[in-house]
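Deliverable D4.2, example record:
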Amino acid sequence: MQIVCSHCLKKNNLPDINYLSQAKCGHCQSPLWQAKPIVLNDDNFMQIVPHSELPILVDFWATWCGPCQMMAPVFERLAGQYNPVQFAKVDTEQSPRLAEFFNIRSIPSLILFKQTQQLARQSGAMNEMQLKQLLAGQGIS
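Output generated by the structure prediction step:
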């Protein structure tokens, strides 16, 4: 399984997903899976998401968005509970090209990626149960 390090952007090969929670980057020794959302932006998104075989759930948000702020603690908490998924956040104000490319019209918007494929997409603030259902709908528990 190939995973891109969110710190140094180097590609790493893991023999088995069971080692994910302990795996470290062979280049910078940073953990390959974060128990909190990683930050994606216009500069690193295309280096990480299409090249990681791990599903990545991306929250497109903005600091001024009330519903985004309400959902943030739930998103953060669930990030540590779903080891086979990397949670990530894209600030649409800081990364307008990504927001435009993915046709983000309302925030928060969540997209579950598996490399270049969008497995699921949902707009609007979600509570914990709704987020879990979104992932369960893709066979992730």
